[in-house]
Amino acid sequence: MPAHHTAHTAHTAQDHTPDAQARAKQVPSSPRRVGRPKESSADAARASLIRAGADLFSRCGYAATKIATLAKHAGVTPAMVHYYFGGKQQLAEAVLEEAFDPLIDQIKEIETLDAWVIAFHDLLLKNRWLPHLMHREVLTSGGHLTDLFKVRYASQFVPKWLTLLAAEKVAGRVRPDVDEFRHVMFLIATLVHPFLISQLEIPLHGGEFCDADLIAFRDDALAMFRHGTAPQS
Questions:
Q1: Domain boundaries, given as residue ranges, for the chain
Q2: Mean pLDDT of all residues in 56-80
């Protein structure tokens, strides 16, 4: 047999070995586009930026927080702020949405004042930075997130509080003469205030409030509210 035919035969046999067939079935992966993060890391990078925004906006304020600082805090490049959110403003809005949207999702299922207090307080426990952000950027004059909060959240939260308090009057658990709006504001303030002072060095306490401390404040606030608004016997 001619040498060239022998070589061709050996080559053909080699192509039919199991390893060669397995290699032939492998499809080369498509190269990732330059400048675009891997899809598997996208959620993690976005979540990291939201956490960084929550921390920095609540501690330093929106105006004092630079995009470069946000990116460094999140462990990403500044370009990622624009890639995921479009800019610092949209990131700040996403921070507020991340905190409040879960409560919006629950709002229709909450039927009692006590259940609303617990749901609202649980939101604060999960996001201890939120009262500080609200104090800086929502409740103060010229707050950067005031308008967004009014339109998207206060417009749903306040009517819910008032409706539940009105139902308490109908059920005979709250006096008819109680001013609904004023007492709702009082209850919210007593729920939020412990979070605002929780990191202060309080001589009688000796350290930052733990979850159990804050839940005790919640229960005391609700008890005082109940006692102060109960019908006179």
A1: 37-93, 110-233
A2: 96
